[in-house]
Amino acid sequence: MALINTVIVPTILAADQTQFGAFVAAYQGFAKRIQIDITDGQLAPTLTLPENQAILPEGIQADYHMMVARPSEHLQTILQLKPHLCIFHAECGEDLLPLFTQLKSAGIKAGVALMKQSFPAVYRGAIEGADHVLIFAGELGRQGSEADLLQTEKVDLIRAINPNAEIGWDGGANLKNVRAIAHAGVDVINVGSAIAAAPNPQQMYEELQADLDKKGVVL
What we know:
- By secondary structure, this protein is of the alpha/beta class.
- Helices cover 28% and strands 21% of the residues.
- Helix 5 links the parallel strand 6 and strand 7 (166-170).
């Protein structure tokens, strides 16, 4: 598998407008695509800036990772924001397929996220209807968690259900493991603290992306 198509996407997890603005200022010079993490204090234990206040400058693709218990209550705002991608969690308890239909009709890619304990076959319908499937291997609502690389086993299971879906990874990606994650067949690797906490975020972003193209042993 050629890894050149795997992309690194920085993530933003911001509690308020000040934090969000600092992330944007640090990333907008080099990032073409950014994932914005939104939590509601219910599905995830933390509470972030709401999505209608977390808006990226023009020219940057926005992926909203909605860690919310009731996606239907956020849908209209997402439709107005018109991001590149909106990801809802399979475990939320709502039927996501009608929401996916509305997202796609508005030109927004529809994504479903699976937590560590979730088996893809249980959420076959949502995976079949999604443009993007996010393997969530960290902890909801926080950055800096350890990557659970056993979650890469889900890649083949997801592809068997929806071979056309873009597969994303979120949770603990860094220079020690990014090549292994990419080799597992992941298309998009979302990176939080490894970039955010780096002395030079752009340099770390470039090192992570360059590491994907190296050949040889990855483990």
